Amino acid sequence: MWGGDSGRQVTCIACGETLDREDAREYDKHGDRWDREGKRFEYLCKSCHRECCQQSRDGLEEMLVAADAGRTDRGTFLRRFCESTTDNESLD
Question: Which residue pairs from 20-26 have beta carbons closer than 8 angstroms and sit at least 24 positions apart in sequence?
Answer without folding.
Answer: 25/49
